[in-house]
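ok trying this again, last paste got cut off
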Amino acid sequence: MVRETGLTSSAFVEILLAYKGGKRMAYKSILVVGGGISGLTAAVEASEAGSEVYLVEEKSYLGGRVAQMNQYFPKLCPPNCGLEINFRRIKQNPRIKFFTLSEIESIEGEEGDFTVTVTAKPRYVNQNCTACGKCTEVCPAERSNEFNYGMDKTKAIYRAHAFAFPMKYVLDREACLGAECGKCVSVCEYGAIELDMEPKSFKLNVGSIVWATGWEPYDATKISYYGYGRHQNVLTNVMLERMAAHNGPTGGKIVRPSDGKEVKTIAFVQCAGSRDENHLAYCSGICCMASLKQATYVLKQAPDAKVSMFYIDVRAMGKYEDFYNNVKDKINLIKGKVGEISEDAETKDLIVQVENQETGEIMRERVDMVVLATGMVPSTAGSKVPAGIVYDEDGFIASETGKPGIYGAGSVKKPLDVASSAKDATAAALKALQSTVRR
């Protein structure tokens, strides 16, 4: 958030006034694509500086991956506080219009005059929804819960998560039994459910665009020697984050998926696919800190648990070094790249094989659970901006996008933590405002 950087929205205006010789300026609208922390920051700051902002998000809620976190590092505070501040700023600001379940189909034009086509998918739930939950109580169909990375299920009509914004239900038509069921329709006393909703397309005219679509976790099934997808008790770091959350699939209890037992021994495997020319050649920078943070989750629940972290080297730079120093003596740090993870078929225990680089010993560590620290992949590696944008070799948007008036923000440009993403989004908002000044 801008208030964390020391630059307020009023400061934006002063900078831009100076930029234009002290004259009060009018702006064309700005489009922000992506409703995670970067998109939210860019939207609220640009709007509070005086611009009309359109915010487009493909999911049914705003908040992005921050909404899926249990705690921030290094303060170990919950993310809902920061998100709620941004949501309140959106609700109180008539200059922001946001569209969920929406995607960008095309971008035409140039800086100062873009025409953007947006397609909105049907929610099948209208503005009358009060989030009372009666529809869910009677719904007989279930679906895999992607918010919890498939570790539990929701009903076909559901609220994305406990703090979802907007606080409205959404219907998964692929899981729904259709009109022949209709139980949710009959029980809703507000007439909020419309099973015949259709997709809609509309156009927006804007002066500039901030592309803040974030990142995806690297697909751990591609790292076959770690057994993710075959061994039940091999999880990824994002999955453990949800498991540790009170509104997660286990109510905050860190347990083995195979039998629900409390975890007493756990191994964090760093650089799972990262810094590897066969997978991700780069370091995501935040994975070490995320694993150290998650080690505190385990130790809080089971103070006598044995926590091991296998690493190439630990990245905990600047202000994060104090956090590293506080945690390192509470866990076993082993310098070595894990070569293979196998499973005891009878007990479902996992055997982690690694060469300890400091002693030369070949270790075979038996643990209850393994957590793979997978890296951050930019969303643009798989879904490109529908415009002439320049990317680097890993699919991140280049700092100079090659298209005046379109600016990347946050982890779609490079791997970033939450605070750094917000700062980068602040800079992108300022550039977008400069692009939209009506001369």
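PB: full thing came through this time. The longest strand covers residues 102-110.
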